[in-house]
Amino acid sequence: MLDIEEIIHHIQALSPYKTEVSGSSPEWPTTSRVLEQLPIRDLLMMLLGEQGRRKLDNQTKTNKQLFPDYYDLVEATLSHSYFYESKRLLEKFRVFIGEYPPTTELAVKFLGFYKDRKPNTKARYAYMLSAFFNFYNGQRLPIKIKTPKILPQDVPTEDFERLEEALRGKKTHKKTIERDILLVQTGRKTGLRAGELAALKVGDLQLKGDDPSIFVHEGKGLKDRVVPLIPFIRDKLASFTSKMSRNQSLFGLARKTISMKMITWSRKAGVPHIHAHSMRHNAATSLLRAGVDLRVVQEILGHQSLDTTMRYLHVTSKDKKEAMRRLDPQYRKPSGEGSTPWVQPVTYSKEENE
Questions:
Q1: Is 243 among the catalytic positions?
Q2: Does the annotation mark 303 as catalytic?
Q3: CA 103 – CA 201 distance, rounded (Å)
Q4: In CATH, which of 3.60.20.10, 3.40.50.80, 3.40.30.10, 1.10.443.10 is domain 157-313?
Q5: How many other CB atoms are found less than 10 A from the CB of residue 304?
Q6: Domain locations in the chain?
Q7: Catalytic-residue membership of 114
Q8: What is the pLDDT of residues 104-129, one digit of tens each?
């Protein structure tokens, strides 16, 4: 935003004349003289700046003009999944307010229809409405929804093995068995989100050479990243895609379809706690338990914040019990790790203590 002297400078630069002063050379008009002659609306527009002018212009639009303008902005700058969900929510809000101008008070009343939803869902809806109002008039909703800090799900590898075994024994849709098992294995061994798995094309795979990898286009936060592949998955993908074109969808499934299929598969396999995001959780916890550096795991998973990755540092009760046992001076390593105590008892002489 320009200060008043900068505004006057720009006005003088655009002015086609100077003020004639008797007995002296032409001079620029004084600041007070300019302010007196400048129309109030023009002065206001200069003071507001580009962002302020846009918000002022929004006030003159009808809801039929305003909301589509916002949708265009979201579609051009944010992910497709966010655009889709945000538009769906805001269209309901537009119907709710009718021809009335949008207000944060009406938005709070609108959110009341979702009071029975989970805290994370309500918080997400509140964020989407706040983002719209920030675009509209620079305001935020006068509420803050607390969300529980839920630890990521810890699904044992054995449960995934049961799931894969159930897929191998499918009695229907046998032609998709290879694809379905490979989908689960790829998700577990790369940590990709369901939406990222759905968006993969054959051309995103680099399967030749010593560094096989998957190129993830515009993951969450519109960030690209490269995820290395272990030889086992590389070989499986190479066989699966041998007759496919580069532009062909790798799995041929939409994000929602993957989520629904995972629910169906896990129920039939007797492991109903497994869902689409469980594959990502399994990859993260497996990497951390293997001792992989936290920041490396962050890069692989595509987390914007290291705090998000740190949530995967939670351990099972068995891990905690084993960790606390190591505080015992008499603790000995489990069989296979040697019989030497992990912590050797230490004695000090009186001289050493002093």
A1: no
A2: yes
A3: 43
A4: 1.10.443.10
A5: 12
A6: 4-50, 63-136, 157-313, 325-354
A7: no
A8: 999 999 999 999 998 889 999 999 99
